[in-house]
Amino acid sequence: MNQNESMIDRVLVYLFNDLLRIEEKTLQKRVGDLSMREVHIIEAVCAAQKEDNTMTVLAAMLHITVGSLTVAVKTLERKGYLQRRRSETDKRRVHVIPLPQALEVERVHREFHARMVEAVTTAVPPEELDVLIKSLHAIYDYFYDQEEA
């Protein structure tokens, strides 16, 4: 591995090892008792709120099983973030509704991401942003391909 490859490897390893931990620690200062997994479930529920917010759709969005989502949603219900409701028209369908506390978590989480993106875009000269975006897509594509393999 040459020096550039070694530096890329080190940055990616530290980034992936530390990113969720740092995000979780930062968010816990503002929202309290939630893991990043729970925050991302709340994020998905808030995103799906205007569309199809059923357990099946949410599980697919999160790339988890409906059973895993059920366990997490039950916990978030107990904590006062989410509520499940059976469909009026089809009792087999269960919708997940964000409560005001979840909407606040989503707002704080969105702010965290906005500050993160702003920090990157202000640190990188505008003429280099296209290269950064292309590089990030290459990283994403690599991991997506690994998941599919």
What does this structure look like?
This protein has about 150 residues and is mostly helical. The protein has 6 helices and 2 strands, in the order H-H-H-H-E-E-H-H. Strands 1-2 form a two-stranded antiparallel sheet. A hairpin with a 7-residue loop joins strand 1 and strand 2. The mean pLDDT is about 90.
Question: Could you outline the blueprint of secondary structure elements for this entry?
Answer:
Layout: H1 3-31, H2 36-48, H3 55-62, H4 66-78, E1 82-86, E2 94-98, H5 100-123, H6 129-148
Antiparallel strand pairs: 1-2
Helix pairs in contact: 1-5, 2-3, 2-5, 3-4
- Biggest sheet architecture: 2 strands, antiparallel
Structural class: mainly alpha
- In percent, how much strand structure appears in the residues? 5-15%
Number of helices: 6
Low-confidence stretches: none
State the end-to-end distance: 24 Å
Q: Would you count the extended β strands for me? A: 2
Short description:
The protein has 149 residues and is mainly α.
Tags for this model:
149 residues, mainly alpha, two-stranded antiparallel sheet, 6 helices
